[in-house]
Amino acid sequence: MDRLSLIDALAGALQIAPSELTKLPVSAPSDDDTDAAVSAVRLVLVAVDHDRPSGQVLPVEALRARVKATVDAHCRQGRDTEVGAALPALIADLHTSTAAGRDVAGCSI
C-alpha cells in the first residue's frame, strides 16, 4: 500500500485513521513464516495494482471488525505471524469491497 490516496480512501471507508492501516511492524525476513507472509502480501498488492484482488465483497462493518481484530488485537499481543497470515485476505477483501462500491452513509470511496 504505497499510494497515499488509496490508503486515505480505505481508511475513510473504514472510519479509521490512515495510520491504522500502515502502522504494522515489518520485521526483516528471517524465517519461513515471515518470508511467506511478506511474499503473500506482495502478491496480493500486485494483484490489487492490476485490479484483480480476488477478494470477497463484504459490508464495511465486517471489514472494520477484521481490521480492528488484525491490527489491534494481534499486534498488541505480539502475534505477528497471525497478522502476516491474515493480511493478504484482508487486503484483497478491502479492495474488492471498495471496488464494488461498498460504503456507509457519509463515507465515500
In short:
The protein has 109 residues and is mainly α.
Q: How is the secondary structure organized here?
A:
Layout: H1 4-14, H2 18-22, H3 32-49, H4 60-76, H5 80-99
Helix pairs in contact: 3-5, 4-5
Give a description of the structure.
By secondary structure, this protein is mostly helical. It has one domain (4-22, 31-99). The protein is built from 5 helices and no strands. Helix 3 runs parallel beside helix 5 and helix 4 (60-76) packs antiparallel against helix 5. The model is unreliable at 104-109 (pLDDT under 50).
From N to C, what is the helix and strand string? HHHHH
| Major sheet characteristics | none
- Class from secondary-structure proportions: mainly alpha
Q: Give helix % range.
A: 55-70%
Keywords, separated by commas or semicolons:
mainly alpha; globular; 109 residues
